What does this fold into?
Amino acid sequence: MKKSMSNSINVTDDPFLIIKKIVLLFGLDIQYNIRRLRTWNSKLRMFYEKCVALLWFCFIVKSIVTFFSYDIDSGESVTAKVSRKLNDIIAFSVWAMLVMKRKNIFRLFKDIHALGIDLNVRLTSPILYVGLVTILAIPLFEWLFKTLPMQNDDCKILVKYYSVNIMSTQNCKPWYFIALFETFFSYTVRTFYAVTYIILCWALRRILNSHSSGKSDMVRNLSLSYDPHRFEHYLVKNESIIQVLKYFEKTMSFPIFLIEIGDLFEMFLGLTWLNFRRKVTKDIWLLRYSIGTCFSAVRALVFFLCVSLAAASVHEGSEKCKDAQGIILKNALYSKPKVNTRDIIHLLILHQTPTFKLSASGFFYFTKGLVLSAIGSVLTYSLLIIQQVDDYKS
It folds into this structure.
């Protein structure tokens, strides 16, 4: 089913083409099998991919070295140390999984596109261009918030830290380049993956809604009268959607789990920092550097909400499909002489299975209830940590 579905796609009409092109920025080509091509274009892509991979390894090695050289013995809180390095580890892990799963993600794009064509669902939307702007804008704003508030003395400290005491400077120009390197590798891939996840959830929700809507000719006709051919076709489409949903869950769940954990930790860090900033003088460099930390916390909150609600909308679409199945099943049972028992049993099994829920690698499931409980947990633990720190200092 997958092969026939994927091979029927016209690439020129691909609604996800813009997403497949932007990922080239990270040195990943999920659109073409570059190992089979011998053109200069493919060779240049392979060379660029290797260069980006080398920079990624430099990034994670630098993160490990700075942790053992400076962070372990620094006076910062454990929360600040862990959060900074956790973001680096998550970013590197997501990039590594993108490399390993590039073929799976390409196949997922094609299969969702195929479902859209089969169900006559238009998947082109301004949301794709909003996603593209978001992928590029978030790292840019992170970079601006980490550079614009800085003074020359602040830049000396930061350049010394991030260069592992190799570089020294009298102004902020070197810090601008180092901060650009840091924000590109820390946030671009994470943002790309989260935006892609949201877009694919949006596409799957539209497909599920179309498959269950009364506006669909198939659902409307089956709700009025039993037709064995339409009934069998409905079951085949239903199986196709379930297979794509399961493949989406298998491919995307663990990276999105890491990203969500990183977002929750950044929210936690931002809340604890709001308490800490009241106790520092206004002229220390850490206060100016923390403007970027506060922006990261707000970004994390927005992305956590968007990812969670987008994934929860797939669950709602699955519930609508189950309601439509109930109506079709009831009508089929009223038409006993025409009914194929095998098809009825098939639909009955589908109707009795639990509604599909996307998960973060099985650790938690995305429903609307998760949003409030997760944010409430972050607030609770943040206040608890703040209270314990205040009691310890007093």
